[in-house]
Specification:
Number of helices of chain A: 8
Helix content of chain B: 25-40%
Radius of gyration of chain A: 17 Å
Protein name (chain A): Thiamine pyrophosphate-dependent enzyme
Cofactor (chain A): thiamine diphosphate
Largest interface: A-B, 32 and 29 residues
Number of helices of chain B: 12
Structural class of chain A: alpha/beta
Number of strands of chain B: 11
Largest sheet of chain B: 6 strands, parallel
CATH superfamily of the largest domain in chain B: Thiamin diphosphate (ThDP)-binding fold, Pyr/PP domains
InterPro entries (chain A): THDP-binding, Transketolase_N
Distance between the termini of chain A: 44 Å
CATH architecture of the largest domain in chain B: 3-Layer(aba) Sandwich
Number of strands of chain A: 5
Distance between the termini of chain B: 45 Å
Keywords (chain A): Thiamine pyrophosphate
Order of helices and strands of chain A: HHHEHHEHEHEHE
Structural class of chain B: alpha/beta
Family (chain A): Belongs to the transketolase family.
Strand content of chain A: 5-15%
Radius of gyration of chain B: 19 Å
Strand order of the largest sheet of chain A: 1-2-3-5-4
Shape of chain A: globular
Strand order of the largest sheet of chain B: 2-1-3-4-6-5
Oligomer: heterodimer
Largest sheet of chain A: 5 strands, parallel
Order of helices and strands of chain B: HEHEHEHHEHEHEEEHEHEHEHH
Chain lengths: 241, 307
């Protein structure tokens, strides 16, 4: 099966051209940080980790990326366009009547989008079912991205427990932690997964080598969580004037 | 229909559903069963013979539907089961989004019906289940009235890909009837005499309630989508019709009105009343009587309709 990029490439920061694609969605040349909170993780996944092919978006053995935090799809749209899943021109009229791209993505409208999302707390339970259905039948991995505030939804707690008890080694949850959760997570986010038997990693979003390594790592008998802290300053980027 | 491996076949709808799981898993390699504890204790044979294909997520009904949606996205055919209140009402947004919005299918099989768990009180009763499911696009609702119908529906739908709700009840009819999605005339009469349409397990009760009344009795196990052509053909140019459903009254009113929009009609809807919560325990028979769904309760309004 074809990969979009060989996994041996040295991880690099998100290229400026991809950031420019995000800006075409958000219409914000200053790169609003909230639109970018998922960009490092999504770019690293598609550039370094996932085995997906824009020419075969329905390959039954493709890796699955599920954007559960569907209210922030700009970076995912930009990365999918960069990787050739659909034309970059689609990014210029998001959420218009004629557009296939909305403020929340619809899997039936967009090549490469694996689930329709937007209402929080649906991606991780769906990912658990997808991982169960693919386990022992396909080499595919299932990677689901959630936000730290999204974890408020109790459906995630159910899914974290089920995935842990069933030992879903083909499942990875990426928690993009921009510390937006109103009530906070005393003891940390990873601890919630660790208690349920997940393999846990905590990385900073701009540390691309470590991020890529954490996203590549799986364990055969347990699911993996990668908590990505997006609030640390990025030394590789200059602040826009 | 495939044959049962061992033993006599149960006449109880819910028990028959459990009996059919093992042969279903044999016959359809894409089928998985998803449970939230309820039913697990009845499926030891299937669990033993089909490792990994009966998935019990514990008492986690959001995950129950979410997992089913994920399985369907992986190309599996999930059969999902628990009591109606926990299958439809508690995870309703999951039913809407994790199945419907993802454009995937599943076979949801509920037990408990409207008031089978009469002694359990309101927490275990869900008379609005069919109304809720019918409000979402792309669903087929089967309300079988006999265990053989349950088996036939399950084997047919296990082979399909659609979104299907199968409602099992403790109430049942003495004989099975065709479950082909159509309306069937069960007791004929003079042309254009009023029609009483019984849904699923209400048939025997309706036949008893109207035994000496000048009505024809029709029946379907599939109220949604309603067999509109069959209803129009049966009802004639000026229909007088009573619809008797074992769940929320008027659940099929919109579909009936749409089917008869081109002709003057008088239609009575009988079902579980929607205006008050019955805060009593007792037996399902007690509840049927309280809701006007026993023979006497049905007979009264039908006679009024006849004038």
């Amino acid at each position: 099966m074809t990969t979009t990029s060989p996994p041996t490439t040295t991880p690099l920061p998100v290229p400026q051209r991809v950031r420019d694609l995000v800006a075409r969605v958000t219409g914000d040349e200053k790169h609003d940080p909230s639109a970018h909170s998922t960009l490092d993780a999504v770019w690293t996944l598609y550039d370094q980790v996932l085995r997906v092919d824009p020419d075969a978006p329905d390959d039954p053995d493709r890796d699955r990326f599920l954007l559960s935090k569907g209210h922030g799809p700009a970076s995912t749209y930009a990365v999918l366009a960069e990787k050739g899943f659909f034309p970059a021109s689609w990014l210029d009229d998001v959420a218009s009547w004629g557009s296939r791209l909305g403020h929340h993505p619809d899997r039936t409208l967009v090549p490469g989008i694996e689930i329709g999302s937007g209402s929080l707390g649906h991606g991780l339970p769906i990912a658990v079912g997808l991982a169960l259905g693919l386990r022992d039948r396909s080499p595919a991995r299932v990677v689901v991205l959630v936000g730290d505030a999204e974890l408020d939804e109790g459906s995630n707690a159910e899914a974290i427990q089920v995935a842990g008890r069933f030992g879903l080694g083909n499942l990875t949850c990426v928690v993009v932690d921009n510390h937006s959760d109103g009530l906070g997570w005393p003891g940390g986010i990873a601890a919630r997964f660790d208690l349920e038997g997940w393999s846990c990693a905590e990385v900073r979003h701009h540390d691309h080598p470590r991020l890529a390594a954490a996203l590549r790592r799986t364990e055969p008998d347990r699911p993996t969580v990668v908590v990505v802290d997006t609030t640390a300053a990025d030394p590789t980027r200059e602040v826009a004037a | 229909m495939t044959t049962q491996a061992t033993g006599a076949r149960s006449l109880d709808l819910r028990t028959r559903f459990y009996e059919e799981i093992d042969p279903l898993l044999d016959a359809f390699p894409d089928v998985d069963v998803v449970l939230a504890v309820i039913g697990s204790g009845y499926l030891s044979r299937a669990i033993e013979r089909h490792p990994g294909r009966v998935i019990d997520v514990g008492i986690r009904e959001q995950a129950l539907i979410g997992v089913a949606g994920g399985l369907a996205l992986a190309g599996r055919r999930p059969i999902v089961h628990t009591f109606a209140s926990f299958l439809v009402e508690r995870p309703y947004e999951q039913v809407k989004l994790d199945l419907g919005h993802q454009d995937v299918g599943a076979v949801l099989v509920s037990a408990g019906a409207s008031y089978d768990v009469s002694a359990g009180g309101r927490t275990h009763q869900a008379p609005a289940d069919v109304a809720l499911i019918s409000a979402l696009p792309g669903w087929t609702v089967h309300v079988p009235g006999h265990a053989d119908e349950v088996a036939e529906i399950l084997h047919r739908e296990a082979e399909g890909t659609g979104r299907v709700y199968v409602r099992l009840s403790g109430q049942r009819n003495s004989r099975p009837h065709p479950v082909d999605g159509r309306l069937h005339l069960m007791r004929d009469g003079a042309r254009e005499t009023p029609v009483v349409l019984a849904v699923g397990p209400m048939l025997d009760t309706v036949l008893e309630a109207t035994a000496d009344l000048p009505v024809r009795v029709a029946w379907t196990a599939t109220p949604h989508p309603l067999d509109a052509d069959g209803l129009r053909a049966l009802a004639g140019p000026t229909p007088v019709l009573a619809v008797v459903e074992p769940y929320l009254e008027g659940t099929s009113a919109a579909a009936v009105a749409a089917a008869l929009a081109d002709r003057p009609s008088r239609v009575l809807h009988v079902g579980v009343p929607r205006d008050a919560e019955l805060r009593r325990y007792g037996t399902p028979r007690d509840h049927a009587a309280a809701h006007g769904l026993d023979p006497a309760g049905i007979r009264g309004p039908v006679k009024e309709l006849l004038g």
